[in-house]
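Structure representation.

___
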Amino acid sequence: MPGVLVRAGLPALRVDGVRDRQPPNAVRARFVPAGSRATHRARGRASGRRSGRGYPAAVATPVGADPTVVGPYLARALGDQRWQEVTVELIAAGMSNLTYVVTPQGGSPDDAVILRRPPTGAVLATAHDMAREHRVISALDGTAVPVPRTLHMCTDESVLGAPFYVMERVVGVHVVGTLPEGYADEPEQRRAIGDGLVDVLADLHSVDPAAVGLADFGRPEGFAARQVRRWTKQWDATRDRDRPNLDALAARLAETVPTTQRSGIVHGDYRLDNCLLDPQTPGRIKAVLDWEMSTLGDPLTDIGMMFVYWPEAGEDRASAASGVTALPGFPTRREVAERYAQRSGADLSELNWYVGFAFFKFAAIVAGIVARSAAGAMAGKNTSGYAERIDPVVELGRAALEDGAI
């Protein structure tokens, strides 16, 4: 079955500090128009074994998911002896959660499942809580929000050294830096992608947490103010140098926290490249991925963060790793806001605050990456140019908050 992985020509910048991050369930094969087939040969290149993004694979035996352990465990947990022997491929690494494709010996890509676990190094426990990620995905199964089907949750850390879970592998188009050739070439199809992203987000925010067993998934009261305090503390703890404009933005956000209209399930990092698109119908979202930051809170924080990654034609944003949404046909940010308001019924009169906060959060996280890199904690990661992006991002946040420039 066809799928796509594409990357931008420019260095990517991710808020979780992982460059060129591969999401769960992303498909390695190239995009093949309807009626064609992707061959096994098309999945690799003559230069040698490739990773999920097309880069040389970092390791021959994936760290953190030993096949000799994973196979027998899955055979027992899933009650199927064909999993006794497996191949394991690491497709996402770094400071984000690790993602592996697990295939039974002799099986095809259609037989594979996805295994997710925390990084193997020192991490923030709350940022890599596998049980929470598994719980929210499981809870949303059967709602209007497309998610992979979960298969198993393991909390026994003696198995792989950390909790992990297994879910189905969803076949879809993963857009990172550009649209693949032959996919969504028409402006109408690109508009459909934008509209589909908005509609799924509105559908997520309409889910009643209690109705799906997530009533205690977070503390929605005071969420926005608590988020400002959290990321201000993060910035204070990882200052790379004096940045008075960042301090001023933090203070102004704290002074102007809006009253939350309603609470709901918040994804925490909702954007185009955290979704898989239908290979045949660009406007259909096959799956929403990367739920590691999800909680109960103010849904408008998701809109604010999505706007950080939504450049328009003619813009050169320090926060944008991809210019896909600037292509002809994609809705503008204001059109996105209008569609979301119509579908959700939300009042977006305070949207400028949420966009300003999203840029502040982004700047604080990038500053943390810079600080960890300076301390030697980002070995093997290219963080060059990150520090220079912080101040422009802060200015985008100030302009949103003070001038309404969303």
